[in-house]
Amino acid sequence: MTGDLILYKIIELSGVFMWTISGIRHASAKDFDMFGAYVCGFSVALGGGTIRDILLGVPVFWLGSTYYVYVTFIAFFFLLFFRHHIKWIENSWLVFDTVGLALFVIAGVDKTMHVNGEDCGMVIPVMMGCITGVAGGVIRDMFLNEEPRIFRKEIYALPTIMGGIVYYLCVRFVFGDVLWPSIISFVLICAIRFIVIYKQWNLPKF
Predict the structure, then answer these.
(1) Ramachandran category for residue 146: left, alpha or beta (phi over 0 → left; psi -120 to 50 → alpha)
(2) Which residue has the higher pLDDT, 23 or 201?
(3) In the chain, fewer beta carbons within 10 Å around the N or the C end?
């Protein structure tokens, strides 16, 4: 297994962990029981990548490896045992949500670039990265019977698009490998998301 592939796996598994926790925390706020909260977290963590792989016409990533399912279990039990400590962290869901979002965008762009090859251009990888990142949140909001956050509140998709573009350009034209593009894109997405929420910026309504 090459270094780039190992890093990709770490990014994707870390994203699954973060978004499982994010989904469970949101479900807990809606008074879901443990099973319902886990199902919500599982769907959030794996939903975006599932949609991406179906659109790319490749095997769904978590069906070929049980590690992803194990990570959702680990995240569930982590939250079960440490939930009282995490509750003391104000807006802890935002940290897990943002970190998971950034990791999934990177994973989505990278996988699309490898599947489609060098001739795919920039648009499709960035779109797939955006879908990988935000689709889980849309699924979460549907589970919670809420309007999807991406359509009604704060600038949610813009950081994923900008991060995806930066990742693609860095891999294709600057670094060649994935380490520094991953770091730069991750920091950019997290920074934009935190700034947008802190400043309470929103896109104009139509």
Answers:
(1) beta
(2) 23
(3) C
